[in-house]
Amino acid sequence: MNTSPSASAIGDIVITARPFADYTAQFALTTDDLLAGPVLDCAGGASDFAATVRSLGGTAVSADPVYSQSPSHLTHRVERDLNRVRQWTATQPDRFPLDESGQWTHAQRWNTAAGHFLEDFRRDRNENTGHYRAASLPSLPFPDDSFTLAVSGFLLFTYPGHFDLAFHLAAIRELARIATDVRLHPLNDSAQNPCPTLPRLVEHLAEEGVKAEFLGVQGQSDGRDDRTLLLTRQ
What we know:
A seven-stranded mixed β-sheet has the order 3-2-1-4-5-7-6. Strand 1, helix 3 and strand 2 (about 60-65) form a beta-alpha-beta unit. The longest helix has 21 residues, at about 105-125. The protein is about 35% helix and about 15% strand. The chain has helices spanning about 20-25, 30-35, 50-55, 70-90, 105-125, 165-180, 200-205, and strands spanning about 40, 60-65, 130-135, 145-155, 180-185, 210-215, 225-234. It is built from seven helices and seven strands; from the N terminus they run ααβαβααββαβαββ. It is globular. The chain is α/β, with parallel strands linked by helices. The protein has a domain at about 20-70 and about 130-234: Rossmann fold (3-Layer(aba) Sandwich), CATH 3.40.50. It starts with 19 loop residues before the first helix and ends with a strand.
């Protein structure tokens, strides 16, 4: 993977609002995958993925430490972080196409997804549905084999300054403990640098009976995020 000369990292961990369609593309998911059993999105951020899975008749839970916040505080945080994303994408038009006003062409889709998420999050807090769990890797409050599928996007590998190899191993072991099928995307940081420890990570997992398969996908926010890691227990 070649790093663009103008590629820059986004900095501190940001809440994103990636739409459902981005998830299905970047994780190579079919409707059958989503309806085969319970689905976990970790870290879910402000995505409407799980809410949309439920609207299709599936079962889905999102986990993220930010879900400990009240709806009003979380709304403020989401708005602030989406503004950070808009400012960051505006500096890299070769990676993120801009419209005539200089805004990233995907910005409105993310705003719509965030609105859908926040509405569903408020409903969850009012009705105590349990769809949003305040939790973070590498320790999740779910029994073994709770989910058929777990997806984790734009956290692992994305922030190398925050998470080392030991954290990644612990996080993936935890996801593999609670889910049959684990999918991770992307496999590079936010400046398009590939994860240098990925080969060692895959070797460690193989020794523990976790099979790794690389899927070619079409990145949605950045087309060069073109690989997803599929992990299954043997």
